[in-house]
Write a structure and sequence with these properties.
Strand content: 15-25%
Number of domains: 2
CATH topology of the largest domain: Aminopeptidase
Keywords: Aminopeptidase, Hydrolase, Manganese, Protease
CATH architecture of the largest domain: 3-Layer(aba) Sandwich
CATH class of the largest domain: Alpha Beta
Structural class: alpha/beta
GO molecular function: manganese ion binding; metalloaminopeptidase activity
CATH superfamily of the largest domain: Zn peptidases
Shape: elongated
Protein name: Leucyl aminopeptidase family protein
InterPro entries: Leucine_aapep/pepB, Macro_dom-like, Peptidase_M17_C, Peptidase_M17_N_1
Number of helices: 16
Family: Belongs to the peptidase M17 family.
Distance between the termini: 32 Å
Helix content: 25-40%
Largest sheet: 9 strands, mixed
Radius of gyration: 24 Å
Number of strands: 19
Length: 460
């Protein structure tokens, strides 16, 4: 079901959001019965704490949510989402004097907290619903929440139900809902139309590789999103250990992220000419799998020596990026669960990104703070270019030595974008433990920040 706010009504329950510093002053304005009720429940205003007061009919008459201290709030985000899970069933309206930006973030978090992945097992719903606070852009926040929900659904679905054909169908479903055009090149047609790297990576799988190409909008700047759609990654002939394969259903997280972002853009009718490119493959093991030591020629004409078949994501992205660049759009953005080195560098919660454009970085990081969608800038460090040049071919897909793995991967991708502004996001796409508004499982990263930054990035 779509994530949405509860309708406004006279029966909605007032929710007072109180920091520890505000609690005593607020209690001084309340009847003694209210003071006693909160004291009996041990309410101190600590972050995430809740309490409610029932009326004569036994239903909640009002509720309070602790907002902690400024120091406690800095250590997390979406604080009311944590409280929402503890409130009794009902529709709640926030009555506290929070600023508009804080209200928007907390409202988004509440909607995200109501997400459930219930394709395979029924999940209990969030009982407390939020009435959209006054002064926020409710349709925009609902669009963000539902774009994120699409991303989560796609990542959470296991590879037996989310192979290349299923990812294609998800893109077709989105295109149908939004009135977008879509074309798909599949199997050996990839060779005929000069996408050799996508074909090579995916040819060993039973489900054929494909390139998904979706377009929407006919006015405004040209924005092209490219998402890595490796629906499962065994590592190929450089087979991953079993423990490393456990989360490889999420290796299409880049594709899921760009589809979620595209849904936000189309839902809110952002005035851009949007293109979404997704190379969808499985990196499988069979007699026709590509091999270490092979040298492949890309769509762009650059040759690539294969030194590890488990560095396949950059190969499929290379052909898609070359296609994107041929139109010279105003901005190309790639998103991919690309390297373990990025996780070692910044952990699972930050989305590292690469851009040579300081204006892009400034706009993105401003938006990231506003949207509670953290990012971290990494360098396209030119002195490392030599590390991706093996001598026998133009490029090396897996430089030896282990140094700067996320940077060398980004430099590799940049070789395929010559004529367009380019930014690359090396995301994780997975929440390793439950947190407010972010259940364990698939998650979007940097998509809300990008959505918010688009007006500045594209001068809309």
């Amino acid at each position: 079901m779509p994530l949405s706010f509860a309708p406004s009504s006279d029966t909605s329950i007032p929710l007072h959001v109180l920091s520890e510093e505000q609690l005593d002053a607020w209690l001084g304005t309340q009847p003694e019965a209210t003071q006693n009720a909160l004291a009996s429940q041990g309410f101190t205003g600590a972050l995430g704490q809740t309490a409610s007061i029932a009326g004569q009919d036994g239903l909640p008459l009002m509720a309070v949510a602790g907002y902690g201290t400024a120091a406690a709030r800095r250590r997390g985000r979406f604080h009311l989402a944590g409280a929402a899970a503890k409130l009794p069933k009902g529709d709640y309206r926030i009555t506290s004097d929070l600023d508009a930006g804080t209200l928007a973030v907390e409202a988004l978090g509440w909607l995200l907290a109501s997400y459930r992945f219930d394709r395979y097992r029924k999940q209990p719903p969030l009982l407390a619903r939020l009435v959209a606070p006054e002064g926020i852009n409710a349709p925009r926040i609902e669009a963000q929440a539902n774009g994120e929900a699409l991303t989560r659904d796609l990542i959470n679905t296991p590879a037996n139900d989310m192979g290349p054909p299923d990812l294609e169908q998800a893109a077709r479903d989105l295109a149908g809902r939004q009135g977008a055009a879509i074309t798909v090149i599949t199997g050996d047609d990839l060779l005929a139309q000069n996408f050799p790297l996508i074909h090579t990576v995916g040819r060993a799988a039973d489900r054929a590789p494909r390139l998904i190409d979706m377009r929407w909008g006919d006015t405004g700047p040209k924005l092209t999103l490219v998402g890595k759609g490796v629906c499962f990654d065994t590592g190929g002939l450089n087979l991953k250990p079993g423990a490393s394969m456990g989360l490889m259903k999420k290796d299409m997280g880049g594709a899921a992220a760009v589809l979620g972002l595209a849904q936000m853009i189309m839902t809110m009718d952002v005035p851009v000419q949007l293109r979404v490119l997704i190379p969808a493959v499985e990196n499988a093991v069979a007699g026709n799998a590509f091999r270490p030591g092979d040298i492949l020629t890309s769509r762009k004409g650059l040759t690539v020596e294969i030194n590890n078949t488990d560095a396949e994501g950059r190969l499929v992205l290379a052909d898609a990026l070359a296609l994107a660049d041929e139109e010279q759009p105003d901005q190309v953005i790639s998103m991919a669960t690309l390297t373990g080195a990025a996780r070692v560098a910044v952990g699972p919660d930050l989305a590292p990104y690469f851009s040579d454009d300081s204006a892009f970085a400034s706009a993105l990081e401003t938006a990231a703070l506003k949207e509670c969608d953290p990012v971290w800038r990494m360098p396209f460090h030119a002195p490392y270019e030599a590390m991706i040049e093996p001598g026998i071919a133009d490029l090396d897909n897996a430089p030896k030595g282990g140094f700067a793995g996320c940077i060398t991967a980004a430099l590799f991708l940049r070789r395929f974008v010559s004529d367009s502004p380019y930014a690359h996001f090396d995301i994780y796409g997975w929440q390793p433990a439950d947190a407010p508004a972010r259940p364990k499982g698939g998650t979007g990263q940097a998509t809300r920040a990008l959505f918010d930054a688009l007006p500045a990035l594209l001068e809309l």
